[in-house]
Design a protein that fits this description.
alpha+beta, 7-stranded antiparallel β-sheet
Length: about 400
């Protein structure tokens, strides 16, 4: 199916006049494939977490919408992302998480690569016992490195290499949340979970952006963090979300609380913010912990949500805080599970032939409309570029 520019232009109108993205953007495989390239590959998408490669030599393979990638920490401690294929015959190099003690060795013909991506050895490439050949130029056959950036432990990649540097694209949000750019502490299994959701990935972003649904979908949360206690956060072409003025710090049975980030202003005593970093990363910041949700678009109508919770101080990861961590994880898991029937219901609703993308509330749906507009603008730009 070819995307109609007239439909996308209707999405880019002012929120009071705009329609949402047409049904095909949630139900048509051809459109999904176009968004894969123009929305997810052409921008800074999240694919993993730096915590999963903590030591030099740690490597984790990732399948990102069919593209085999390898997240790796090099000898200098830098997280890098490579295409996970040998330059010889395209064999997958690493098929499960590992620590590379020497070189990355292809299991097919034993071509070997350093953690810096350079091709180090090519056994018998010139015949038995001949490990060099004049036509095999090792300095031209290193691993293909994918543009990557780590921010708040999320590993972002720009697969196509077309996007501006991450620091330029997201300088506003990085400045807004600069007080949280400090060491983050993850406690392991009790601070991680995954959710499998039967919906297009964009619906998870749209729902997360706004607080309009709180009274009906999250009654427990709304009992103390009411709709009127929230505000919209919007930054055109970058991110959108919402914040609360009445965040209530979680306490244990003995009134124990997690230690705070150092140097926060008083506004964070009861403040928290929740932002969708376009296209597929959802973040939440609080005085004492931070979470990141990486949306993995498994298919047109299947999404896997990878949820990781980080703490402000190392002592929060100690055994004494285990009960409170478990309580915190259970609380967030309950909140996020409450959203599943909504996003799955919207996915089913997008098969209604006369649904026209929907009408936005000019007051309440600004963040969600901004995301729709961002997707539409990306597709319009790609279409115009292709027609040149």
């Amino acid at each position: 199916m070819t995307i109609a520019l007239s439909d996308l232009n209707a999405v880019t109108q002012d929120v009071a006049l705009a329609r949402g993205l047409p049904n095909a953007h949630y139900t048509d495989q051809d459109v999904f494939d176009q968004e894969r390239k123009s929305v997810l590959f052409d921008n800074w998408s999240g694919i993993g977490f730096a915590k999963d490669v903590p030591r030099s030599g740690d490597a984790k393979p990732v399948d990102f919408l069919g593209v085999p990638l390898l997240i790796l920490r090099d000898h200098e401690g830098r997280v890098r992302v490579y295409q996970n294929t040998c330059r010889h015959r395209g064999m997958i190099l690493i098929d499960k998480p590992a620590n590379i003690r020497g070189t990355i060795r292809c299991p097919y013909h034993s071509w070997c690569y350093g953690l810096d991506g350079r091709l180090r050895s090519t056994p018998h490439v010139g015949g038995p016992g001949q490990n060099v050949h004049e036509d095999i130029k090792r300095d031209e056959l290193g691993l293909i490195e994918i543009s990557s950036y780590v921010w708040l432990d999320v590993v972002y990649v720009n697969v196509s290499g077309k996007a501006a540097p991450f620091e330029e694209v997201h300088k506003d949000l990085m400045a807004r949340w600069s007080m949280f750019e400090k060491p983050l502490y993850h406690a392991g299994d009790d601070s991680s979970f995954r959710l499998e959701v039967s919906c297009n990935w964009k619906l998870a972003v749209e729902n997360y952006c706004e607080s309009y649904h709180l009274p009906w979908v999250h009654p427990g949360l709304n009992s103390y963090s009411r709709l009127e206690d929230h505000y919209n956060i919007t930054k055109a072409d970058r991110y959108a979300g919402q914040g609360t003025l009445v965040y209530r710090q979680l306490a244990g049975d003995n009134e124990t609380v997690f230690p705070d980030f150092e140097g926060l202003g008083s506004e964070w005593d009861t403040g928290a913010e929740y932002v969708s970093v376009f296209p597929n990363v959802l973040l939440g910041v609080h005085r004492d912990h931070y979470f990141a949700i990486l949306l993995e678009p498994v298919s047109l109508d299947k999404t896997r949500e990878h949820v990781e919770i980080f703490y402000a101080q190392p002592e929060a990861t100690s055994p004494q805080f285990a009960p409170l961590r478990e309580k915190n994880t259970a609380q967030w898991k309950e909140v996020f599970k409450e959203d599943i029937f909504v996003v799955e219901g919207m996915q089913k609703g997008r098969h209604a032939p006369f649904f026209d993308g929907g009408k936005f509330s000019p007051v309440m749906d600004g963040p969600t409309h901004l995301f729709h507009k961002w997707v539409a603008d990306a597709l319009i730009g790609a279409t115009v570029e292709a027609e040149k």
